[in-house]
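Dear colleague,

Following up on Tuesday's group meeting, I ran the structure prediction for the two-component complex that the binding team flagged. I've pasted the input sequences exactly as they went in, so you can double-check that nothing got truncated or mislabelled along the way. The structure tokens for the whole assembly follow below. Feel free to forward this to whoever is handling the docking comparison.

Inputs:
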Amino acid sequence: MALEPAVGIAGATGLVGNEMLVVLEQLDVRCKILRLFASKDSVGELYSFFGDEVEVEELNDDSFEGLDFVLFATSAELSEKYVPLAVEAGAVAIDNSSHFRMHENVPLVVPEVNIEAVTAEDKIIANPNCSTIQLVPLLKVIDELAGLKRVVVSTYQSVSGAGKAALDELWAQTRAVFTQQEMPHDVFHNQIAFNCIPQIDILQDDGYTREEHKIINESRKILSLPDLKITATAVRVPVFHSHAESVNVETREPLTPQVLIESLEKRDCFDVYPDFHEYPMQLGVTGSDSIHVGRIRRDLSVANGLDMWIVADNIRKGAALNAVQILKALIEREVFG
Amino acid sequence: MALEPAVGIAGATGLVGNEMLVVLEQLDVRCKILRLFASKDSVGELYSFFGDEVEVEELNDDSFEGLDFVLFATSAELSEKYVPLAVEAGAVAIDNSSHFRMHENVPLVVPEVNIEAVTAEDKIIANPNCSTIQLVPLLKVIDELAGLKRVVVSTYQSVSGAGKAALDELWAQTRAVFTQQEMPHDVFHNQIAFNCIPQIDILQDDGYTREEHKIINESRKILSLPDLKITATAVRVPVFHSHAESVNVETREPLTPQVLIESLEKRDCFDVYPDFHEYPMQLGVTGSDSIHVGRIRRDLSVANGLDMWIVADNIRKGAALNAVQILKALIEREVFG
């Protein structure tokens, strides 16, 4: 029988943190200790884990003593402060924030793509951005089949990527359109109800947003293709859950939709739509663990190219599931105890 | 003083037909006769035109006698039948349907791009698809400045492109989410409320939708670039009005955002957002006559490329305004009477 680790979740009451708890149970990750950390406001809240009640504790400097792994579903600022404390206390930290992702000595991991990047020496492992996680497994398969030449991505991202308050705000703004009441603007500067906002995260001096930089730079790092030609436009759409992406890929060698479809179907992480009359949509994939790949067709504008439409649950595969998959892989290696 | 033409609008009570009437007045297109045609159901409805009341008549085979121009805002099926009858009766037909657009002898016109394609011999002039109309003026400017090499477009199209009933359906479906009532599905096969649907118009055997073919083929025809390398993914988003497009362009020669911005600013049809902190959105541009171009930035994945975000009112610039602009140009040429 495998050893059972002592695990903590920091930011356990947010959308991603709470989903991490759910996924731990669903993936049958038994823990000898499971502790939940959040801000003062949530202290005392009770969560169920394999039938036990677990009480939320306040996250503080001394939280991590005796833990083997800590899953961080915290902001970049909180991760910057607390991840090193977890490591000092002897834990391995799996961090969902953006803070450590591009650090040279921190592996950035999508298990289906590069779990081998994690060595026994690594004490911090970064979980990529949600829109990157659903993209790179597809790019990896295409690269192996035909060599990636260039990638152009446009995203259709749900509000859940901006947290619980964003779900409430889409709901409240939509209701305000019907009732002609004043519209809340606590999360989104612009109206998101019945509107698309072509800005996610802050704008950078080169005209890209930080979200677009994440897609570009994290994809390069995860795929170990530092010169990958890739550009992205990231757009928030008035949808509650799951992200969709319109993905255009040029390849070095010819690649037919049929060959790609057969290759994707062999891998667990994809749900493929081989009949082009069917395609994934955000409503249908929410709660699913797969990356849904549809509308796979030849790009008629280049010798070797494909257009695709990919959809995944950004809180599950795009965040919580990916982190728990990393944790599970490390437990199986028994890199603790 | 210019001659005043006799003008008819077929399909006058739909979203586009009604907007044609509004735009005729706003652009001060005086008509010695103005007649409105629709199906039996709308007969007798009254519309105002320069202070006069105009009563809707039933569209029939004999509707067009004595008219100089007929604007068609009808389905492809109705246009196929009635446009030739209008021409037989001596009128010039400006048709918003898809039926004649790719006919070899029918000019397909966006006035800012190719009004010179219309000769005195042309009796049928086709108005392009809404998502094409807002794209080609931008492509034309870029082609003149630096030569188009390849274009990748992903669209974010509002429901108004599917007509009045689609507006009602987004409204009713959204309300049904709140009230947990049964959801109407008269227009959209899939739920559009809080969802994106990656299919507009019917799917073709090559995996593209007809909407995507329209963007590709109509752009080539309007720009007189039959070999233009262009691919498109067309997506319906839960927004009432206006279409947005994420546009990636590779050029043959270098082209900086600054040079493009200055060039666009010189032309009337664009509203440019030179400060990258500001950008157009669907909510803000509805009712506007301009093509709004924002988020103009270098595509870092190629030697010569740009990423952009363009938004326009699909019923105005994408349909009614474009048709009336064509009409106005022909009146100024006095190609009637």
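The first helix of chain B runs from residue 15 to 26.

Cheers,
M.
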